[in-house]
Amino acid sequence: MAPPLPVNSxxxxxxxxxLYTATMLVTLWIIISRKHYPGSRKKWQIMLVLASYICSTMxxxxxxxxYSEAIDDNELPTGPGLLYxxxxxxxxIEGTGDTFFCLNIFMADCLFVWRCWIVWNRQWPVVVLxxxxxxxxxxxxxxxxxDQVTALKSLEAFTVAKKSQQFVQLSTIYFSLSxxxxxxxxxxxxxxxxxxxxMSKKTGTGSHRSFNPIMEILVESAVLYSVSLLxxxxxxxxxxxxxxxxxxxxxxxxxxxxxxIILRVSAGKSRPQEDWSTKNSGTLKFAPSNSxxxxxxxxxxxxxxx
Length: 306
Hints:
- The protein has 306 residues and is mainly α.
- It is 75% helix and 0% strand.
- The termini are far apart.
- Mean pLDDT is 78; it is low at 279-306.
- Keywords: Membrane, Transmembrane, Transmembrane helix.
């Protein structure tokens, strides 16, 4: 008989976590090696990078603990058996895992909203809806974790049924808000990039450096994050067993996708300030940067304060 859970999803998550770890170390090295970066900006970036990484790593670590304890219980003569252990999580593992998972999604959504706000010249009307969706999702996440823990701890059938029903209802709303936030910010950032790319080619303005249009859209607009989140939500709604693969992948992608944006900017590979500020694009114009640098990478550092 096939196992009740796709245990290989743990290996898949660890592979993504390994990729995430390597990218994180490279990003930290680039941030630290930037001598002209203000000290406060370095600390803020490092804290953001490490916070997201800790959340993703905690999720994969708890999965390892969950599976290893299930195997250990199965090997005991008086153990409950592998099937029971795999389908009955400990309350603290479930609560902690859900907390880090939701926290990682919240930080990712905040960074994408921030990026969208910067790209669109700090115009608050552009990001009002994503901000409201993100804040609402954060509140719902608290109720979701609480309902899940209560349902697992309670011995009363009525309480378990009630909290389980609330968990399902709130989870649907929560992930709908998260999908709305990611798709909206992805669309707005992609639209801005396409407009700038088109106008730069048409007028010959902007930087003289070449930018891969596909790579720019994939990284800057966090398309990979939106795809992984949407896949997870669809499989979760369909009650597909492969939802465990999607969930574990998204737990890592929620930290990796924002990290790629930070890496691109820190490495000086994103568009310089004047490209986003072009007057001929017919779009919103950035305010001038407060500081300039003589070297070619300085314009990239002024682009965002992430």
